[in-house]
């Protein structure tokens, strides 16, 4: 029963919770497994949400280097979060908020603020109960309004950083009804040299869990293949779960097929049964099958899209990769993605893009590789190669036009060249006076007015669009008229901010100051990505045949 008044405990909320921990090593795809279960529960008619716990001391992911941690994902409310939240949004097709990412930095910051405000009435402030209470409160608040809340604890059981969270979950389970909480442990089942599935790492990580008072209800074995019956029995015996609570999660070619495997294994049904949701679930023949239909759709032929960026790491641009996949699924074409280092253009164009069908310049910060991005834009503009510029890619398209069409030598963004004679991209007008960079970014969802009769209008099929933002610099209003006289069209605006740029005399040249990749879902591909691929499919240009 609840003892602390401020945990937000309210049994009438009636939420169900699936707690997901990881064993043996990180990077097993625990989040994808959890999101897949969530998708299946949603297909069965439940409102599903998710909380990702990141046991690091950063307050948010905004300051984290994409090269180490992968992309910073942006939520509708402007929260800068771990890329796993992106997976939850894509799988569940539900919008999360900043509160759905719990970090140690956030929790401690809040507890220390309370302590400074005297809220603890002279008590010694401790991990138990003050930190654990705050964790429980956050989980309950994020779960509010959903039927099922999936709570994934990042990292691996045994990590020092994760301990307060596991303790919080232990307490949480005591405070709720038994059939409202289920613990799933996702672990690695490796092969020995002689091809045997080994359960010892799993046994050890479950032992670790039990030593802190947690007994998993379900064990999911990540393995190259399905687990043998004998492996499942062994895990059941040593980990003290019924054999039917041990599930395989074999490698699949495409992460979007994980829900199909999870369904075949019956993990979703087991979770519903144990959470006493079985009777409320839609009968099998009435469940939503759109996910399966979309991800197993036929794909004919393929197109090759180059991403000209600075990080050669798929995770750093994961939402763009996924958006291309979604658009490919919608159009029935496979999209091959090639990464080209923007620094490869240091000595100018030398055939780097000859074999690709379309080019994306993604978002980015700082000056490294920007000349290469500008060079890539020059090439696609002059050679009618379909182009999609996202945020920094939008800004570099403007810079390229200013330099090479308008003739403004040395034009640049003041982010990259503070002394440029032609600051066509500059810090946000209302922030000219701001010295401190912290908190000056334009973040999250904003509406853009779309000019009728333009490519942007065709793309969105509407005179407005709503997309997510994450940037600090924008088109300098003083140059707009000259740039438009030189052929650029600013077809999307939000008051005085330029949001979309295009080139009418080009098969497809579109730049967006916002990031459409954060709203793309397998079940709802992003319009600019779909239009970009459509243009590639329509264009007569043969890759490799570049006009002289
Ligand atoms: N660095 C640029 C800015 O701050 C672009 C940001 C981005 O691409 N996300 O405006």
Account of the 3D structure:
With 548 residues, the chain is α/β, with parallel strands linked by helices. It has 2 domains: 11-294, Rossmann fold, CATH 3.40.50; 302-538, Class I glutamine amidotransferase (GATase) domain (Rossmann fold), CATH 3.40.50. The chain has 17 helices and 21 strands. The chain has helices spanning 30-43, 66-69, 83-92, 104-116, 127-143, 163-175, 200-211, 229-239, 258-265, 267-274, 290-295, 318-331, 370-382, 392-404, 455-460, 480-485, 527-538; strands at residues 16-22, 48-54, 73-74, 80-81, 101-103, 148-153, 181-188, 218-223, 246-250, 302-309, 334-341, 358-361, 387-390, 412-413, 423-427, 442-450, 464-471, 473-475, 489-494, 497-502, 509-512. The strands form 4 sheets. It has a 9-stranded mixed β-sheet, with helices on both faces. α12 (318-331) links the parallel β10 and β11. It is globular. It starts with 15 loop residues before the first strand and ends in a 10-residue tail after the last helix. The model is unreliable at 1-13 (pLDDT under 50). Residues 363-365, 391-392, 415, 470-473 line the site of glutamine.
Name the average pLDDT: 91
CATH topology name of the largest domain, in short, is Rossmann fold
Question: Please, how many helices?
Answer: 17
The biggest sheet, with number of strands, parallel, antiparallel or mixed sense and barrel status, is: 9 strands, mixed
Low-confidence stretches: 1-13
| Shape-level CATH architecture of the largest domain | 3-Layer(aba) Sandwich
Strand content: 15-25%
Residue share in helix:
25-40%
Shape: globular
Structural class: alpha/beta
Please give the number of β-strands. 21
Whole-angstrom Rg? 25 Å
- End-to-end Cα distance, whole Å, is 76 Å
């Amino acid at each position: 029963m609840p003892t602390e008044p401020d945990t937000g405990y309210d049994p009438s909320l009636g939420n169900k919770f699936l707690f997901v921990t990881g064993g043996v090593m990180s990077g097993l795809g625990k989040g994808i497994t959890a999101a897949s279960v969530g998708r299946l529960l949603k297909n069965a008619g439940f409102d599903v949400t998710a909380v990702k716990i990141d046991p690091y001391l950063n307050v948010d992911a905004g300051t984290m280097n994409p090269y180490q941690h992968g992309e910073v994902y942006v939520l509708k409310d402007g929260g800068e979060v771990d890329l796993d939240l992106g997976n939850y949004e894509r799988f569940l097709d539900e919008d999360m908020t900043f509160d759905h990412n719990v970090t140690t930095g956030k929790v401690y910051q809040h507890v220390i603020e309370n302590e400074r405000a005297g809220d603890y009435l002279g008590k010694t402030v401790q991990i138990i109960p003050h930190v654990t209470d705050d964790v429980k409160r956050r989980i309950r608040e994020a779960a509010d309004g959903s039927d099922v809340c999936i709570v994934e604890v990042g990292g691996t059981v045994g990590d020092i950083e994760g301990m307060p969270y596991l303790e919080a979950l232990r307490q949480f389970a005591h405070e709720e009804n038994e059939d409202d909480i289920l613990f799933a442990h996702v672990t690695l089942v490796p092969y020995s040299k002689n091809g045997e599935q080994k359960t010892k790492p799993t046994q050890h990580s479950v032992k670790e869990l039990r030593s802190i008072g947690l007994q998993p209800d379900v064990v999911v074995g990540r393995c190259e293949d399905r687990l043998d019956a004998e492996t499942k029995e062994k895990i059941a015996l040593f980990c003290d779960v019924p054999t039917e609570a041990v599930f395989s999660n074999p490698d699949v070619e495409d992460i979007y097929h994980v829900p199909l495997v999870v369904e075949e294994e019956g993990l979703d049904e087991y979770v519903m049964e144990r959470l006493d949701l079985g009777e409320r679930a839609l009968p099998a023949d009435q469940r939503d099958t759109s996910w399966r239909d979309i991800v197993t759709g036929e794909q004919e032929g393929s197109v090759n899209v180059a991403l000209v960026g600075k990080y050669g790491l798929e995770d750093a641009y994961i939402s763009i990769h996924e958006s291309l996949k979604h658009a490919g699924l919608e159009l029935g074409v496979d999209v091959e993605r090639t990464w080209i280092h923007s620094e490869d253009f240091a000595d100018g164009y030398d055939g780097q893009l000859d074999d690709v069908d379309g080019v994306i310049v993604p978002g980015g910060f700082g000056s490294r590789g920007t000349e290469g991005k500008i060079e890539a834009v020059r090439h696609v503009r002059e050679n009618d190669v379909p182009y999609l510029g996202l945020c920094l890619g939008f800004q570099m398209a403007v810079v390229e036009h200013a330099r090479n069409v308008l003739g403004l030598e040395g034009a640049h963004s003041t982010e990259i060249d503070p002394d440029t004679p032609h600051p066509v991209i500059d810090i946000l007008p209302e922030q000219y006076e701001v010295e401190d960079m912290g908190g000056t970014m334009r973040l999250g969802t904003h509406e853009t007015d779309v000019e009728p009769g333009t490519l942007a209008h065709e793309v969105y099929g509407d005179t407005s669009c709503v997309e997510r933002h994450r940037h600090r610099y924008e088109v300098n209003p003083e140059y707009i008229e000259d740039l438009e006289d030189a052929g650029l069209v600013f077809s999307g605006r939000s008051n005085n901010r330029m949001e979309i740029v295009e080139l009418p005399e080009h098969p497809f040249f579109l730049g967006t100051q916002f990031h459409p990749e954060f709203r793309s879902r397998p079940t709802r591909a992003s319009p600019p990505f779909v239009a970009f691929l459509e243009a590639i499919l329509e264009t007569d240009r043969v890759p490799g045949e570049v006009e002289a």
